[in-house]
Amino acid sequence: MRFSILGPLEVRDDAGHAVSFTRRLHRTALSVLLLNPGQPCSCASLVDAIWGDEPPLSPEVSLRSCVYGIRKLLPDPARLRTHPSGYLIVTGPGELDADDFRELAGRGRDALDARQPAEAATLLSRALAQWREPPLADVPAVPARDRLLGLRLEARDALVDARLALGEHRQVLGELRAAVTADPLREHSWAQLITALYRSGARAEALAAFGRLRMALVSAYGIDPGPELQDLHRKVLADDPSLLLPAANVAMTPVEVGPAPPAAARPADEAGGSAPDTDLTPAWRPACQLPAAVPDFTGRTAELAWLRTRLPGDGMAVTVITGMLGTGKTALAVRAAHEAACAFPDGQLYACLDDGGRPRDPQVVLGELLRGVGVPAGAIPAARFEREALYRSVLAGRKVLVLADGATSAAQVRPLLPGTAGAAVLVTSRSRLPDLEGARSLELAGLDPADSVTLLARVSGREPSGPGRDGGRENAEAAASVAAACGYLPLALRIAGIRLADDPGLRLAVLARSLADQRHRLDELEIGGTSVRGRLGAAAQAVSGPARRALALLAAPEVPDRPFENSAARRAAPELADAGLLHRAGHDDSGARRYRLHPLVLAYAGELLAAAGPPVLELAAPRPPRSSRMTTRVGDRRTTSANPACS
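Predicted structure:
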């Protein structure tokens, strides 16, 4: 057999035929086992790697079921063995790409140490060729994964060292510029770049590169570069002959290394390091930084029509697209921004304000935007107010659209607002950002049923009402059932559609039956690294402990049939809505705020409630009614409405 984990998981039998592992749980578990072939992995470590912070109710039982499923798919089930401490998988020589990589990389480094650069370059190139993109796609963040990625980085460094020793300094310049841009504080990559620049005749650029690194280190940590770079800097200043290759020690003729890359591609520190530009005057460069629009975008006709009236609008229009998680806020914003691009000829800027659930510093984002429109890195002030003033000055009088994606607060957005009319700002946020001055908001709910079925068909590539295996009335009804089980939520619909596209043998009716069981619905709505449970879990982890307990209480059996009178839950409702876990449903006749729970959030709340146990269940006991200006109701799980996404 042949196992490949240095990219998306691949398994082939002795005849070279691919063995398909479509379930994420199977792919993750097998990848973790293959990180340490022949070594037992404990049950606890496997559960943690597969399910993370959201383990199932019976982890040992679920793990045994997962292992059983893998054995059924393996051509040789005996390779996956039970061990007293867990499970292990057995591979032979030449059967695992990670083993081949380690062996070739080790031989390559030995050849480099023995001053045999040609052999080292050959071996290291073969080692790195084992890797595919995206690297370790099915392996979760575990220590063994980080060690393997570290070995890959070391092998790349060693390969560049070998190529520099072979005189290929001009050929590695582009690779080295990309390396220091990706990791601007990795000193050895800078040393390689400075050496390559000097040998290419670009002595001044080599010195400027040292200056950029030094400023980056001082800004980040208050330290100077290490001994390797300090010594290299002295040698460049002195034109030390030892920097040249032995065959070129006689003389060095300056060579043409081509035009410098544009400012946005040059290595520059996020905190405002210097750049090789000699003119630090901001020079406007129109930029189109918008992400690609979703090709299968569906529905939202009324919302797009309203956004067209705002882009462009009078003055400096600020629009906030809000709604619970998974409603497609970013997809709608990007679509609207592309449609309005011609109205903003001076550029369309994209500011990502969310980094995997962690809010980004708006000052760092400002630096990115300024460099993107042509401001040299060395001209960007470090002081907050000076940086914001420069941003407003650069954008003054220009027709620019700024898309601020994933904002968590108005304070994140304010520094990104242009100061003059003609510009527009489009913000996506789970919160309405009511304290963002002058902003108008558009709140998204789920799609309507017809658009939901259309989106499912476009993502899956199957037309339920057309001819063939997935056509006809039965499949049209199954598609409608899948859409309803997804609560008409675009995120869930996309996952269901991707599952259908990824597995041609999966019939709509089968998927509809699987999703009909609410207890296991979230298990079905996951593929690859995307899952509804994962998104809900990340949002739930971001709220306070009392808010998480309140969310769990919303799944108590008594709650769907009566006003929720628990004071803690009443206080937590706005926080849960800002996290995208409740939908604001207007006001009742008395003017009190009402909230509704999406069925998929209700399913996740049930899991939280089951994990919390009796102490939290006691809080759900009925209490005497009390006077309040706000009521929170949860729609009956058996009720179907015109838009069940909000029930």
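Summary: DSSP finds 25 helices and 17 strands in the chain.
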